[in-house]
Design goal:
238 residues
Length: 238
């Protein structure tokens, strides 16, 4: 079963599941976000979500964390049915920074709309529910770490937030780097504010986006191709 829990230092979220859980999520992501260039204005968001998908895929291949989880098989059940079997399953996991994960949950709202517009009725679709579960798990994990009133405001903001069409996704990098540099206590206090910043596209974001557009204008580049003058640390204390 796919699950999420915050990391010890509150730096991010540990996404866990067996091979099939993670593979199902990855297949759904690939299907819903479409092919390169398919949705004009969404390429930056698509690439960010693919970054999370990359971590999930490598986790499923055993390249990240490997855990052993009780599978519900008790000794009396083994004796009752007369067989020998392990009582633990192998689960794989990977960590993702909180701002990155929150943005993905937010941006996937748009991709589901685009996907539905292309597919039509999603009643028999198997990918949209997998994405909805992913978004719900992110928000449920968040719920355990922010006050009730703030959580309800975040849910409302995610529902009413503007589209991410043309979003300056470098802003997510800015929030990621600021978040990494915080103490654990600062992260706990700032998580609600970061979630709201991502969804509401406040004046700080608007000013940042204007700078990115200005940098892209001389070469007529898409704004998602503009790099930022900062680097992520080699090691993150999760």
């Amino acid at each position: 079963m796919l699950s999420m829990k915050t990391t010890p230092n509150h730096t991010g979220v540990k996404i866990s599941g067996d091979y099939f859980d993670l593979d199902e999520l990855n297949q759904a992501i690939y299907k819903v976000i479409g092919k390169e260039g398919e949705y004009q204005g969404y390429e930056g968001s698509r690439l960010r979500i693919l970054g999370i998908s990359y971590e999930i895929r490598h986790a499923a291949q055993g390249d990240r964390n490997v855990d052993f989880v009780f599978n519900g098989l008790h000794e009396h059940t083994k004796k009752q049915h007369g067989f020998i079997a392990p009582d633990k399953n192998i689960y794989f996991s990977a960590e993702v920074l909180w701002p990155e994960l929150l943005y993905a949950a937010y941006a996937l709202r748009d991709f589901i709309w685009l996907y539905q517009g292309k597919q039509g009725n999603l009643l028999a679709d198997i990918h949209a529910p997998a994405i909805a579960k992913f978004q719900a798990l992110v928000l449920d994990c968040l719920q355990g770490h922010v006050p009730k009133e703030e959580y309800e405001a975040i849910l409302e903001a995610f529902l009413k937030a503007p589209t991410v069409n043309g979003y300056a996704t470098q802003y997510v990098d800015l929030l990621n780097l600021k978040y990494i540099d915080m103490t654990r206590q600062q992260r706990e206090k700032s998580l609600s504010a970061i979630a709201m910043k991502l969804a509401m596209q406040d004046p700080e974001y608007q000013a940042f986006r204007k700078q990115v557009i200005g940098a892209a204008a001389p070469g007529k580049q898409p704004i998602h191709e503009i790099g930022i003058q900062a680097e992520y640390p080699e090691n993150v204390e999760w």
